[in-house]
Structure formats: structure tokens, C-alpha cells
Design a protein that fits this description.
147 residues
Length: 147
């Protein structure tokens, strides 16, 4: 488990550093009136997708995510019911997102991105991995809440 945590942390941190560097470089080049580079936009978008979809499951795994409660029932039974319902709804969303992403990849995997000229597969791989990790973590949480 520890090597996987280190890998996810490294991927997420690298994506964040790349995203920040590319955005700062774009702003500097635009202010200097140097030509716009479309590949920087796509690379920043790719780094953004990797950062979000890899770090969110990592934070969830480490229990460092933020939760927002719209209303908090007073009884323990109602609290556990809402938590279980939330977990099931999140699992359903992750399941649908994962399998619709797979369906999309099968149709578009070899279509190149306009500026970077890499297959679209690379853009959709991080969301699929992140969604699969979220689905696995939610399944673990569901089993834990049921017992």
C-alpha cells in the first residue's frame, strides 16, 4: 500500500507543479506579447486533469478530504443512514463515470489532441484511474459501514 501512496502522491504533486509552471509561463509570455503556444494550453489541461483525478482519491484514502454537511440529524440511526446513502450515491456516480469513460475511450483512444499530437487516451487515463480508485475506496467504506 505504501508504494502506491507514494506513487499517487508523486503523480499528483508533479501534475500540480507542471500546471503551475505552465500557467505562469503562459501569463509571462502573453504579457511580453510573445506568440501564444496552443500546446501549453493542452499540457496545462492535461496536468490539471491528472492533478484533480489523482489527488482526490489520495486525499480520500488518507481521510484528508473535506466534507460538507447540509444538515446533521441528531440520531445515530439517521446519521448512519445518511452516510450509507451518500456512499451508495457516490459509488453509483463513480461506477457510471468509469464505464462511460471506458466507452468513450474505445471510440476516441487514437484521436490525437490538436496541439500536443498525443492520443486522447492520455487525457482520459487519469480520470479513469482516479475514478476506479474512488470506486474501490467507496466500496471499502461501504463494507465498513455495513458491518
Amino acid at each position: 500500500m505504501k508504494p502506491l501512496l507514494i506513487l499517487l502522491d508523486s503523480l499528483g504533486s508533479t501534475g500540480l507543479v507542471c500546471l503551475t509552471s505552465l500557467v505562469i509561463l503562459q501569463v509571462v509570455l502573453r504579457n511580453l506579447r510573445i506568440a501564444n503556444f496552443p500546446w501549453m494550453d493542452e499540457a496545462a489541461r492535461l496536468a490539471h486533469v491528472v492533478t484533480i483525478f489523482i489527488l482526490v482519491p489520495l486525499l480520500f484514502w488518507l481521510d484528508k478530504h473535506i466534507t460538507a454537511e447540509v444538515f446533521r440529524p441528531t440520531s445515530k440511526t439517521a446519521q448512519s443512514f445518511l452516510k450509507l446513502t451518500s456512499t451508495v450515491a457516490s459509488m453509483a456516480f463513480s461506477f457510471l463515470f468509469f464505464f462511460s469513460g471506458i466507452k468513450l475511450i474505445f471510440r476516441l483512444w487514437n484521436v490525437p489532441l490538436a496541439a500536443l499530437r498525443i492520443p486522447t487516451l492520455f487525457l482520459y487515463l487519469a480520470p479513469l484511474i482516479g475514478t476506479l480508485l474512488s470506486l474501490l475506496l467507496l466500496s471499502k467504506r461501504f463494507v465498513r459501514e455495513r458491518s
